[in-house]
């Protein structure tokens, strides 16, 4: 199940960036499951990773290799991604496997081991099938290309329970030059990113200095991947990477940064929303907008409390305007000295709650008409300050239970 | 659905306590939906109520009436409970209705209005059908009795989506006297009590001074109703009441208090667990035991994070030993400077996780054998200190979605 029909967009080439994909049979035969992304040696690279204390071996290795490259002035030129196995909860053996897969690709391409960053996604706790993965590498390398088909195959090659590949592209003028930003992402369940989503890979041809690139990645992820939730479960493997190849316009002045940040935010938000639209069992795409909070943290607290409520999510699935469940979820959110008489809740353009109870103007017919829609916005005004937050989520359906009760079988 | 087959126990009379039930047709015809519990004027009474900021009108009135009784040396002698309507999110009109229902019963019984405490449970945001409720009162009053049948009918008269009535009784010797503690409770969904469960009513014939009674209620609820969760949603109407009628043994000395607290804890825990066994769509009863935490708060944080994880709950439903999901949930729990290499996780008597990954001794067959059971204990040892917590929860099934996607229709 998924919300709407969103085809994979046509991603234009980004100079110096090539993508290769193979069917290595990591978990199942005849599906793209191994992806190599190549960057030019002019690139700057930034990454954000899961905050889950049980972070997977490839996350630990990717972080260590990033640091090593920075200290030795090397570019992490290869991103090696496999699906079908998360290499998480695999202890020492998992670390050895992640390092060995980097070493294999590095020797193939003639770069240092630390220039390869590994990413894995799939089932947790099974050993990575190294033989198959290593056998697939030459095939992935031989297919390296910069075509839009190569981007689409890479988008497909990182999926797990996703029902479709997810990509986004924006082209924007910086001075008299065009800058392109391409991204692909995957994720459908175990989605409550805390730093980044399951996996996101974004590349631009702009030239962006390292520390600025890191800042831009953090800022835009904070308002995209860090604002989505399917099921409140933060993955062990979350990672979002951003590379700037440097062949295009240089991003330096405040104005250039503003235009570029805006374009990058569009790509990040589109990718993050694509994950929700393809959330496990999703039949609805829900936007939760919390306004007039005392702090952004408070606004996020209210938005996520509502977004995680199984009772709100099942009511959304049923298209039932059971607004009492929204009210009950808001009422248990982490807000100090909460005066609920100031709270105003709107469902689409229908006022649900004011003065501590159901709005006088509310009718069941009006509420039901909004709930019947596939895309629904819930606005919660706290009346406490001027901060706000927007969070995107999906509903909780029979299909969600089916997918997660059957995933390993 | 529900876990196991738990008949309503035979509750013995508690001197001076009578219960009456009526079919008032609050929401549906031909079901017990209005209950009156009468206490003698020798009783002490304590209560704990929901922390949800949107607390329901009857909760606000019950708290105000309790305070008034305390300051005027009156006993809150009548508990008036209706199911089928929560009288929550109903604003000023809801307050008027709650007060009017107290006034009606008070004038019927010849007591002050503040001596009646109202409790409501059911759908949120609909006006309380006062005409039907008031018409039902005389019938409930005329059926007041202390028989075990009266207890069972009262247990039935407070249910909503519950599949069965829930009661518990313990008799214990205090010196040369027998003390009886009887309790009934209801709750199945919107269960993540924060002070008390949806509704719990416990009565003893012991004589317990007011402030001691309040302390005992808080302490025992903290380790029973406050340690259960079905779906992480805290209700607007939670309340747990405890009355000591004073006709039996006096509880004063440290030893008497210890024996009585122990017996009371047994009743509270049995009632709280009964809610989980009858959790919406429950097919499994799960005990989460977190040991060797730095603080009890930390232990509760880990236990509830795992208990709320939809991915853990669907794996339990599927009897799938997908222990990676437990590990991932533990890893995202609110624990400062978390060294996961010290974490040990056992599923029943099977070791799942140690040294940051899957235990060397683990086999899928052993894990699956435990997961196939109807009652499962997950032990998580954090290796950080000496505090612990136990939390009880149910699984997440297709039936849960069905119940909550259909509840209002």
TrEMBL record, chains A, B:
<keyword id="KW-0012">Acyltransferase</keyword>
<dbReference type="InterPro" id="IPR016117">
    <property type="entry name" value="ArgJ-like_dom_sf"/>
</dbReference>
<comment type="similarity">
    <text>Belongs to the ArgJ family.</text>
</comment>
<comment type="function">
    <text>Catalyzes two activities which are involved in the cyclic version of arginine biosynthesis: the synthesis of N-acetylglutamate from glutamate and acetyl-CoA as the acetyl donor, and of ornithine by transacetylation between N(2)-acetylornithine and glutamate.</text>
</comment>
<feature type="site" description="Cleavage; by autolysis">
    <location>
        <begin position="196"/>
        <end position="197"/>
    </location>
</feature>
<comment type="subunit">
    <text>Heterotetramer of two alpha and two beta chains.</text>
</comment>
<feature type="binding site">
    <location>
        <position position="409"/>
    </location>
    <ligand>
        <name>substrate</name>
    </ligand>
</feature>
<feature type="binding site">
    <location>
        <position position="280"/>
    </location>
    <ligand>
        <name>substrate</name>
    </ligand>
</feature>
<keyword id="KW-0511">Multifunctional enzyme</keyword>
<protein>
    <recommendedName>
        <fullName>Arginine biosynthesis bifunctional protein ArgJ</fullName>
        <ecNumber>2.3.1.35</ecNumber>
        <ecNumber>2.3.1.1</ecNumber>
    </recommendedName>
</protein>
<keyword id="KW-0963">Cytoplasm</keyword>
<dbReference type="Pfam" id="PF01960">
    <property type="entry name" value="ArgJ"/>
</dbReference>
<dbReference type="GO" id="GO:0004042">
    <property type="term" value="F:L-glutamate N-acetyltransferase activity"/>
</dbReference>
<dbReference type="GO" id="GO:0006526">
    <property type="term" value="P:L-arginine biosynthetic process"/>
</dbReference>
<keyword id="KW-0808">Transferase</keyword>
<comment type="pathway">
    <text>Amino-acid biosynthesis; L-arginine biosynthesis; N(2)-acetyl-L-ornithine from L-glutamate: step 1/4.</text>
</comment>
<comment type="pathway">
    <text>Amino-acid biosynthesis; L-arginine biosynthesis; L-ornithine and N-acetyl-L-glutamate from L-glutamate and N(2)-acetyl-L-ornithine (cyclic): step 1/1.</text>
</comment>
<feature type="active site" description="Nucleophile">
    <location>
        <position position="197"/>
    </location>
</feature>
<feature type="site" description="Involved in the stabilization of negative charge on the oxyanion by the formation of the oxyanion hole">
    <location>
        <position position="122"/>
    </location>
</feature>
<dbReference type="GO" id="GO:0005737">
    <property type="term" value="C:cytoplasm"/>
</dbReference>
<feature type="binding site">
    <location>
        <position position="160"/>
    </location>
    <ligand>
        <name>substrate</name>
    </ligand>
</feature>
<dbReference type="GO" id="GO:0004358">
    <property type="term" value="F:L-glutamate N-acetyltransferase activity, acting on acetyl-L-ornithine as donor"/>
</dbReference>
<keyword id="KW-0055">Arginine biosynthesis</keyword>
<dbReference type="GO" id="GO:0006592">
    <property type="term" value="P:ornithine biosynthetic process"/>
</dbReference>
<feature type="binding site">
    <location>
        <position position="186"/>
    </location>
    <ligand>
        <name>substrate</name>
    </ligand>
</feature>
<feature type="binding site">
    <location>
        <position position="197"/>
    </location>
    <ligand>
        <name>substrate</name>
    </ligand>
</feature>
<keyword id="KW-0028">Amino-acid biosynthesis</keyword>
<keyword id="KW-0068">Autocatalytic cleavage</keyword>
<feature type="binding site">
    <location>
        <position position="404"/>
    </location>
    <ligand>
        <name>substrate</name>
    </ligand>
</feature>
<dbReference type="InterPro" id="IPR002813">
    <property type="entry name" value="Arg_biosynth_ArgJ"/>
</dbReference>
<dbReference type="InterPro" id="IPR042195">
    <property type="entry name" value="ArgJ_beta_C"/>
</dbReference>
<feature type="site" description="Involved in the stabilization of negative charge on the oxyanion by the formation of the oxyanion hole">
    <location>
        <position position="121"/>
    </location>
</feature>
């Amino acid at each position: 199940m998924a919300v709407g029909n969103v085809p994979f967009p046509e991603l234009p080439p980004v100079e110096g960036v090539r993508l290769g994909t193979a069917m290595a049979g990591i978990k199942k035969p005849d599906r793209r499951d191994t992806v190599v992304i190549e960057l030019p040696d002019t690139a700057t690279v930034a990454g954000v990773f899961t905050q889950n204390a049980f972070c997977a071996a490839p996350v630990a290795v990717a972080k260590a290799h990033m640091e090593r490259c920075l200290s030795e002035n090397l570019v992490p030129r290869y991103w090696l991604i496999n699906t079908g196995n998360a290499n998480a909860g695999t202890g020492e053996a998992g670390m050895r496997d992640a390092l060995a897969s980097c070493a294999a690709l590095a020797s193939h391409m003639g770069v240092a081991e630390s220039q390869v960053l590994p990413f894995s996604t799939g089932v947790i706790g099974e050993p990575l099938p190294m033989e198959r993965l290593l056998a697939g590498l030459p095939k992935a390398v031989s297919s390296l290309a910069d075509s839009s088909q190569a981007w689409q195959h890479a988008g497909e090659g990182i999926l797990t329970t996703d029902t479709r590949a997810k990509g986004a592209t924006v082209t924007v003028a910086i001075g008299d030059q065009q800058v392109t930003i391409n991204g692909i992402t995957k994720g459908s369940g175990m989605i409550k990113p805390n730093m980044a989503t399951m996996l996101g890979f974004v590349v631009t041809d702009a030239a962006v200095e390292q520390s600025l690139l890191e800042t831009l990645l953090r800022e835009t992820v904070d308002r995209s991947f860090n604002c989505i939730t399917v099921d409140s479960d933060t993955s062990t493997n979350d990672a979002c990477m951003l590379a700037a190849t440097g062949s295009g316009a240089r991003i330096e002045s405040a104005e250039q940064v503003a235009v570029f940040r805006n374009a990058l935010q569009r790509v990040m938000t589109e990718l993050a929303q694509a994950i929700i639209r393809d959330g496990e069992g999703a039949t609805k795409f829900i936007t939760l907008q919390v306004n007039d909070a005392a702090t952004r943290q408070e606004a996020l607290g209210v938005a996520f409390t509502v977004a995680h409520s199984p009772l709100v999510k099942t009511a959304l699935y049923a298209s039932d305007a059971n607004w009492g469940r929204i009210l009950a979820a808001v009422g248990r959110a982490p807000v100090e000295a909460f005066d609920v008489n100031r709270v105003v809740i709107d469902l689409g353009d229908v006022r649900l709650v004011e003065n501590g109870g159901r709005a006088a103007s509310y009718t069941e017919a009006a509420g039901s008409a909004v709930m019947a829609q596939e895309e629904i916005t819930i606005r919660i005004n706290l009346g406490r300050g001027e901060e706000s937050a927007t969070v995107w989520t999906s509903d909780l359906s029979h299909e969600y239970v089916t997918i997660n009760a059957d995933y390993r079988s």
